[in-house]
From TrEMBL:
Keyword DNA damage set for record: no
Name recorded for this polypeptide: Succinate--CoA ligase [ADP-forming] subunit beta
Subunit: Heterotetramer of two alpha and two beta subunits.
Organism: Salipiger marinus
Source organism, top-level taxon: Bacteria
Residues holding ATP: 46, 53-55, 109, 112, 117
SUPFAM superfamilies: Glutathione synthetase ATP-binding domain-like (SSF56059), Succinyl-CoA synthetase domains (SSF52210)
GO terms, molecular function: ATP binding; magnesium ion binding; malate-CoA ligase activity; succinate-CoA ligase (ADP-forming) activity; succinate-CoA ligase (GDP-forming) activity
Family: Belongs to the succinate/malate CoA ligase beta subunit family.
Binding residues annotated for substrate, in chain numbering: 274, 331-333
Task of the protein: Succinyl-CoA synthetase functions in the citric acid cycle (TCA), coupling the hydrolysis of succinyl-CoA to the synthesis of either ATP or GTP and thus represents the only step of substrate-level phosphorylation in the TCA. The beta subunit provides nucleotide specificity of the enzyme and binds the substrate succinate, while the binding sites for coenzyme A and phosphate are found in the alpha subunit.
A Pfam family this chain is assigned to: Ligase_CoA
UniProt: Mg(2+) binding residues: 209, 223
Keywords: ATP-binding, Ligase, Magnesium, Metal-binding, Nucleotide-binding, Tricarboxylic acid cycle
Length: 397
């Protein structure tokens, strides 16, 4: 689960991290009061969306020469104007995809003088199963780009959970970042605070890009991106409350309400499968036959008829879907339950596209019978590759 920059900064402030003072603006008429509450002489107006690259991003509605999602302002009036201009508009960055994201919240914060922009991140390293620090002198840039062109400028190491964070970890980072004197001390302290926040709040990722060194030698967190372990939200009610559903894919949001594992993709073939492994194999084999999956969907082991109906409705609500492949291996899941769910869904929402159904396992004969007697226009398949071949053929002709 992700949260907005302004929420991330508030959380980090509670852990003692150095962040600028700022105000969130949800509607145009709040903009002036928000900007006026800050000291100036420089204001920074920042679009709040769950995607990075806002500074270099572009608004769909932008006029010639108009700036991206991070703008400087020299007066309260100017800051309020910029905030108003961003609200309700659609910002496209390299992380949003071409559709972009609507800006519903704008953060106005004090501007900072920047001497150097640095990069600092914490993440769960799957290889070592530990929390890792990543840092680089090349802040403000895409870290993927730095990793590709100048990997020697990135330092990464993991922390032994038995010792936890130790000041020498911080000194190692400070040394790599070329920090001296008070900035070195601040770095050691900041990293301890970040590590504590990361562990206590069940984060998966914490990225500060940039962390800045200011002319006076102080450090400041200028951007913050936090990602949390969704499975831990039951014990993090404060974090769960920060969820902004408008930032999520509407189909994924709907799926999460029914406990379905659904991920929207760009292809044309909708898939309804039970079991994550079979779902992956189904996506692979669709690609093998020359088409692209429109989604990943695992309805789970013990899905009910209602759950299957919802899953089918979510797939058909996707305008990119030109055909549907239902691929079920009935182990715990019974094929007749799937068949009833599919029929119930088709009755409710209709069927505009070809549907291929492959059933195997528990109650398979019963399932096939239910579908055959339904009067629905369903193409039956005998096995996985037969199913993939038939749906791709039906869609592509
Ligand atoms: P994004 O990564 O989404 O583009 P950032 O918050 O990193 O957004 O902002 C982009 C750039 O804008 C930063 O690298 C920094 O140069 C500048 N910037 C952001 N916030 C401030 C601020 N409060 N004061 C001065 N410059 C800022
Ligand atoms: Mg940034």
């Amino acid at each position: 689960m992700n949260i907005h920059e302004y929420q991330a900064k508030a959380l980090l402030r509670d852990y003692g991290c150095p962040v600028s003072d700022g105000r969130i603006v949800l509607s145009a008429n709040e903009a002036k009061t928000a900007a006026g509450a800050l000291d100036g002489p420089l204001w920074v107006v920042k679009a709040q969306i769950h995607a990075g690259g806002r500074g270099k991003g572009k608004f769909k509605e932008a006029e010639a020469g108009e700036k991206g999602g991070v703008r400087l302002a020299k007066s309260v009036e100017e800051a309020a104007e910029e905030a108003k201009k961003m609200l309700g508009k659609t910002l496209v960055t390299h992380q949003t995809g071409p559709a972009g994201k609507q800006v519903n919240r704008v953060y106005i914060e004090d501007g900072s003088d920047i001497e150097r922009e640095l990069y600092l991140a914490l993440l769960v390293d799957r290889v070592t199963s530990r929390i890792s620090f990543v840092c680089s002198t090349e802040g403000g840039m895409d870290i993927e780009e730095v990793a590709a062109s100048t990997p020697e400028k990135i330092l990464s190491f993991s922390v032994d959970p038995a010792t936890g964070y130790q000041p020498y970890h911080g000194r190692r980072v400070a040394f790599t970042l070329g920090l001296e004197g008070p900035a070195m001390k601040q770095c050691v302290k900041l990293m301890g605070q970040l590590y504590k926040a990361f562990v206590e709040k069940d984060m998966e990722m914490l990225e500060i890009n940039p962390l800045i060194l200011m002319p006076g030698g102080n450090l400041k967190v200028l951007d913050a991106k936090l990602g949390f372990d969704g499975n831990a939200m039951y014990r993090q009610p404060d974090i769960a409350n920060l969820r902004d559903e408008t930032e999520e894919d509407s189909k994924e949001l709907e799926a999460s309400k029914y406990d379905l594992n659904y991920i929207a993709l760009d292809g044309e073939i909708g898939c309804m499968v039970n079991g994550a492994g079979l779902a992956m194999a189904t996506m692979d084999i669709i690609k093998l036959y020359g088409a692209e999956p429109a989604n990943f969907l695992d309805v789970g082991g013990g899905a009910t008829k209602e759950k299957v109906t919802e899953a089918f409705k979510i797939i058909t609500s996707d305008k990119n879907v030109k055909g549907i492949l239902v691929n079920i291996f009935g182990g715990i899941m019974r094929c007749d339950v799937i068949a009833e769910g599919v029929i119930a869904a088709v009755k409710e929402v209709g069927l505009q596209v070809p549907l291929v159904v492959r059933l195997e396992g528990t109650n398979v004969e019963l399932g096939k019978e239910i579908i055959a007697n339904s009067g629905m226009n369903v193409i039956a398949a005998d096995n996985l590759s037969d199913g993939a071949e038939k749906i791709v053929k039906a869609v592509k002709g």
